[in-house]
Amino acid sequence: MDQISKRNNKFRRNTKKKDPTEAEVGEMIGDATVAAVLALAAHDDTHEVKSKTAEDIELWKKFAKDYQVQITATAAALKKKDLAAAADSWKKSSTACTACHDKFKENQ
User: Fold this and answer.
1) pLDDT for 39
2) Lowest CB count within 10 Å: 16, 36, 86, 104, which one?
3) How far is 31 from 35, CA to CA, in rounded Å?
4) Nearest CA to 63 among 5, 21, 106, 103?
5) Degrees (nearest 5) of the Cα angle 40, 9, 28?
6) Is the pTM of this model over 0.85?
7) How far is CA 27 from CA 14, 65, 67, in A?
8) Nearest C-alpha neighbor of 16 from the set 6, 30, 28
9) Which residues does 31 contact at the CB level (< 8 Å), separation at least 6?
10) pLDDT digit string (tens) for 50-87?
11) Residue 45 and residue 41: Cα distance in Å, rounded?
12) What is the per-residue DSSP string for the chain?
């Protein structure tokens, strides 16, 4: 999760720029792509689900899948140079993160 958080923080900074450079867009594409792959691993790594209930494990997997779908859409939009769509998808991916953290992250 640390790598996803680091990449999201960089992404958050870059999306605030009105006209990111080609290099910044390239970096965002890379960060979004890596985060999407990491989300696949997070989907199956349920050790953070302390309750171990089937319901909570399914909810964890739903959050991870939602994040993965939206961050993949972010990368795809960036590749098309559609910054508005990328920002929208990224916000949706962040919503999945926040919901998951609200449910599962201890000591927030």
Assistant:
1) 95
2) 16
3) 6
4) 103
5) 70
6) yes
7) 9, 23, 19
8) 28
9) 7, 10, 11
10) 999 999 999 999 999 999 999 999 999 999 999 999 98
11) 6
12) -HHHHHHHHHHHHHHT-SS--HHHHHHHHHHHHHHHHHHHHHHH--TT-TT--HHHHHHHHHHHHHHHHHHHHHHHHHHTT-HHHHHHHHHHHHHHHHHHHHHH-S--
pLDDT value for 12: 74
Q: How far apart are the first and last CA of the chain?
A: 14
The burial of 11, by beta-carbon neighbours within 10 Å (0-12 exposed, 13-18 middle, 19 or more buried), is given as buried
Q: What is the mean pLDDT of the chain?
A: 90
Using CB atoms within 10 Å of the CB of residue 56, give its burial: 0 to 12 exposed, 13 to 18 middle, 19+ buried.
middle
Cα separation, 82 vs 105, in Å, equals 33
